[in-house]
């Protein structure tokens, strides 16, 4: 579907939705939200772009195949989940820096776990949807 209205709207919505997904990612280790919801919003942004401009153009924006995000995300979340074992703590125990970072707040292993989930969700959703779209 090549609609001039949808293409114009997508030009403005893509950065706004990606910014909102990043906000959900950072908010998630304090409140509901996080990697899963943020990843879904980011995926929706790219799917909307693909509806308006075609899957090939969206793949040019991404630069890498979405499938490559899955192992990267799994590695990040595995490291963040097992890192407490090095300190004699149970897995998935939250480790936090002592000083908060301006704007972001406290940084801890929960944030890195959420980043891993974020990347896995984007990779899985876009791989599935782009595979279906390219095979039509």
TrEMBL record:
Domain spans labelled Na+/H+ antiporter MnhB subunit-related protein:
5-127
Q: Sorted alphabetically, which InterPro entries does this protein's record hold?
A: CPA3_antiporter_subunitB (IPR050622), MnhB (IPR007182)
Where do the TM regions start and end?
Answer: 12-30, 36-55, 67-89, 101-134
Q: Where in the cell is it found?
A: Cell membrane
The topology of this chain with respect to the membrane is: Multi-pass membrane protein
Q: Per UniProt, what is one Pfam family of this protein?
A: MnhB
Q: What are the record keywords, sorted?
A: Cell membrane, Membrane, Transmembrane, Transmembrane helix
**PANTHER family under this entry?**
NA(+)/H(+) ANTIPORTER SUBUNIT B, NA(+)_H(+) ANTIPORTER SUBUNIT B
Family of this protein: Belongs to the CPA3 antiporters (TC 2.A.63) subunit B family.
Q: Which NCBIfam families match?
A: PRK12509.1
What is this protein identified as?
Na+/H+ antiporter subunit B
């Amino acid at each position: 579907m090549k609609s001039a209205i949808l293409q114009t709207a997508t030009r403005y919505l893509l950065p706004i939705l990606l910014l909102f997904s990043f906000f959900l990612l950072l908010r998630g280790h304090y409140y509901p939200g996080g990697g899963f919801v943020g990843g879904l919003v980011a995926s929706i942004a790219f799917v909307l772009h693909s509806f308006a401009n075609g899957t090939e153009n969206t793949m040019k924006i991404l630069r890498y195949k979405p499938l490559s995000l899955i192992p990267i995300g799994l590695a990040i979340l595995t490291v963040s989940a097992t890192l407490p074992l090095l300190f004699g703590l149970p897995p998935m125990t939250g480790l936090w820096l002592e000083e908060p970072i301006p704007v972001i707040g406290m940084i801890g292993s929960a944030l890195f776990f959420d980043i891993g989930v974020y990347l896995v969700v984007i990779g899985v959703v876009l791989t599935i949807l782009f595979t279906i779209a390219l095979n039509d």
